[in-house]
Specification:
By secondary structure, the protein is mostly beta strands. The protein has a single domain, classed as Jelly Rolls, CATH 2.60.120. It contains two helices and 16 strands.
């Protein structure tokens, strides 16, 4: 695991608990249940949200996230066809601390916010997509902001953004304890945080074999 080029800074696996197996960070489960992992044939279980109030608190943004280049890779499957005002993951306490993704929001648009919510700079959007058993990569760095779905680049801009840490909770299925954005009905398969903008070739590798870095 350690030393593998695809090892994330934090790698959360959903296998009876939401546990980071790199640095042993464990999420706090706020409702939700478990389900078989994936139609892609992955073993183990997935975290299943069956109500919009389900969520997982995985730790403070100041502990988990960087303020500069960042990539988040998410195995995610929406389980119904209703478009909600929901968030897949995030933290937002004032716009400059934002790191969140809506997959999709109620307008069927995917949003990736990093360091703000200004369209064309700190907010990147992708529309016209279909949703299934997907692997998403949200990246930020010298290439700008990017949204990848199953190894296909869906949106990009040239903004190399930064954010500030707020010392607030980073969550799956919510992005602010006081916000109106809640969870979608979906499965979370895995959740990886990188403190760098991962290479395009690495995104392809993670789509093909998302657990390869776990193998010893």
């Amino acid at each position: 695991m350690q030393g593998h080029p695809l090892t994330p800074r934090y790698g959360f696996i959903m296998d009876g608990s939401v546990a980071d197996i790199v640095r042993n960070v464990r999420g706090i489960l706020i409702a939700g249940t478990w389900a078989p992992n994936s139609a892609r044939g992955y073993s183990g279980t997935a975290r299943k949200h069956t109500a919009t109030t389900d969520r997982v608190d995985i730790g403070l943004d100041s502990e988990l996230l960087t303020t500069g280049p960042c990539s988040i890779v998410l195995g995610y499957q929406k389980t119904d066809a209703v478009a909600r005002g929901s968030v897949a993951f995030g933290t937002t306490t004032g716009t400059t601390s934002t790191c969140d993704a809506y997959v999709p929001f109620s307008d069927n648009v995917v949003y990736w916010d990093y360091g703000g919510t200004a369209g064309g700079s700190t907010r990147l959007t992708a529309s016209g997509l279909t949703f299934g058993d997907d692997i998403w990569a949200f990246t930020q760095g010298l290439r700008g902001a990017e949204i990848w779905q199953n190894g296909i680049l869906r949106a990009a801009n040239g903004s190399n953004n930064v954010r500030v840490n707020a010392g607030t909770q980073f969550m799956l299925g919510k992005n602010n304890a006081g916000s109106g954005q809640l969870s979608d009905l979906a499965l979370w398969k895995f959740f990886y945080i990188y403190h760098r903008q991962i290479l395009r070739s690495e995104i392809s590798d993670l789509v093909r074999t998302p657990y390869s870095w776990v193998e010893r």
